Amino acid sequence: MHDGEFRAPGVELFDFPPLWDGAPFWLTKPVAITLLGVVVVCSLAWAAFARPRLVPRGLQNLGEYGYEFVRDQIARPFLGGDTDRWMPLLLSLFTVNLVWNFMGVFPLIQFPVNSHIAYPIVSAFLVYALKIYLGFRHQGLAGYFRNMAFPPGLPRPLALVLYAPLEIVYVFVTAPFTHAVRLFANMFAGHLLLAFFSAVGFWFLVTHPTALGAPLGIAGVITAVVMTGLEMFIQFLQAFLFTMLAAMYIGDSLRPAH
After folding, report:
1. Which among 36, 67, 179, 226 counts the fewest CB atoms within 10 Å?
2. How confident is the model at residue 1 (pLDDT cuts 50, 70, 90)?
3. How far are the Cα atoms of 42, 46, 70, 79, 99 from residue 57, in angstroms, in the given order?
4. What are the TM regions of this chain, as residue ranges (predicted)?
5. Cα separation, 127 vs 171, whole angstroms
6. What is the pTM of this model?
C-alpha cells in the first residue's frame, strides 16, 4: 500500500530485522516466538503434571486428553508395542509444532514459526537422522538396504531395475524434503492469505474508505475471519501430519515390512 494504491503483502512479511539496534542478526521476531512457544509448552506440561491427581481436573485433564490423542491416533497405529517408548518424542513434536503454528493467529504475535523454512527443516532432519540410525541399528546396514529395495513378493529383476532406484531416491531425498516442505508451504501460504484479506479490509475501510470500496473492505474482513477458522484447522492438521509421518518413519525402521 503506497501512494494511494493498494499493494498486496508479499514475501516481505517473512523478512525480519533484529529485535533492536545492535542485537545479533539472528535475534529476530521468529526466534523470539520460537522460544516463547517452547516456554508455553513446558509451562503447560509442568502445570498439568507437576502434581498429578488420581482423578484429573483442569490442565491435567486437558493434558491427558492430548497425550491419549497422540498415543491412540498417531503413535499406536505405526509403533504398536513400542508406542510408550516413543511417546515423549512424538508428544513433544506434536505440541511444539501445534503451538508454533497457532502463533500465526494469536493476537499481537500473528506469525506461524513454521512459515520460516529453517524450523521445519531442522525438525524433519532430526526425524530423518533418527529414522536412518534406527534402520541401521535394528536391521543392519545390508539388511536396511535389502528390506528397503527388495520388498517381499516383488520379482527381483523388477525390483532391481525399477523399484529399488525409486525407493532409494524416496527414502534419502524425497521423504525428508516433503516432510519439511509440506509443513512450511501450508504455514507460508496460510499466513500470506490471511495478511492479504486483512490488508484488503483495512485499506478499503480505514486507510482509504470510499462508498465503492466499502463492500470490498467488508468482504475482505469477513473472508479474513472465515480464513482464520480454516487456518486454525490447517495448523492443527499439519502438526498432526508431521508427527504422524515421524511415527511412520520410526515404525518402518524398527520393523521393516515382511
Report:
1. 226
2. very low
3. 19, 14, 19, 29, 22
4. 31-50, 86-111, 117-136, 157-177, 183-205, 212-230
5. 12
6. 0.90
DSSP state of 5: B
Q: Hey, what's the cell of 41?
A: 509448552
How many beta carbons lie within 10 A of that of residue 110, not counting itself?
A: 15
How far apart, in whole angstroms, are the C-alpha atoms of residue 188 and residue 32?
18
Looking up cell 511412520, which residue turns up? 248
Give, as one character, the DSSP assignment of residue 113: G
What angle (nearest 5°) sits at the alpha carbon of residue 173, between those of residues 171 and 175?
Answer: 55
Of 222, 202, 223, the closest CA to residue 213 belongs to 202
Find the length of the chain: 258
d(CA 182, CA 124) in angstroms, rounded, equals 11
Q: pLDDT tens across 188-238, in order?
A: 999 999 999 999 999 999 988 888 889 999 999 999 999 999 999 999 999
* Per-residue cell: 141: 546396514
Contacts 24+ apart (CB under 8 A), 141-148: 143/256, 144/253, 144/256, 147/256, 147/257, 148/256
Q: What pairs with residue 5 in β-bridges?
A: 2
Question: What would the pLDDT profile of 12-38 be if each residue is shown by its tens digit?
Answer: 999 999 999 999 999 999 999 999 999
Residue 45, all three cell numbers: 506440561
Helices (H), the chain: 29-49, 58-69, 76-79, 83-102, 118-139, 141-149, 156-158, 164-169, 175-202, 214-254
